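Letters spell out the chain; the tokens describe the backbone. To illustrate:

===
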Amino acid sequence: MPIIKNILRRGIIKNQNLERFDVLIDEQGALGENMVASQYFNVTDFPAPLTLGNSIFTLEGSNLLKPGVEVKTEILDKNNNPIYHYPVRKPDNQRQTRVAIEAYPGFQTGIGKLVLLAELDPNNPNNPLIPDEFKDTYNVRFVGTFRLDVSLRNTEEIIFQKPPKLNVREEVRGNVEIPASDTESILSITGSGTFNGGSIAGFSGDGGGAGNGDDDDKDDDTDFNDDYSYSTNVGAGVRS
């Protein structure tokens, strides 16, 4: 089974040609998500169909296989191109092994194959008699077919090997509010005020004074206490 060296890089695997290996028992079957395939290897949870991206299936084995012998695995597309995969770490006391599949872009839609190779347990009475030429070597094989569809979206669940951690950091920054439209609205503010004063204050009145010719009310209206009264409206445009 291939060993992953760096999870941040694309995995590479070579074709092992396990189908050409001469075996005593050659088992075949179909793979599916809710199916159990092979009485020797007990393959379950194989994606149906397999899509691009990461997927996973379960390999349990059986007491028909010889203990301590590594199981050879190979996953091929319809053109016999190998698909990268590797076993997921598990506790030593756990029998089931999960196998992760990484199908990268470049494969074609079609029928692929999962090829498994192992050795029969010669001490198990449920196994057939093993001829000498098949003893102490790989002598049982399972070939399971599946459909690979590169056009479908990968909906496999994410499985964490370790409890995930989340780091949260607050970032405070100003927000710019964009108006609902690019039109300009005008807001008018109106009011009134009373101004007392003559020309020195910058205001003048056309005959509005109460000038009666005496010294207290002069024609040039320079007295701040004259009885002139002005009213004005103030307006301002506001962009909203």
About this structure: DSSP finds no helices and ten strands in the chain.
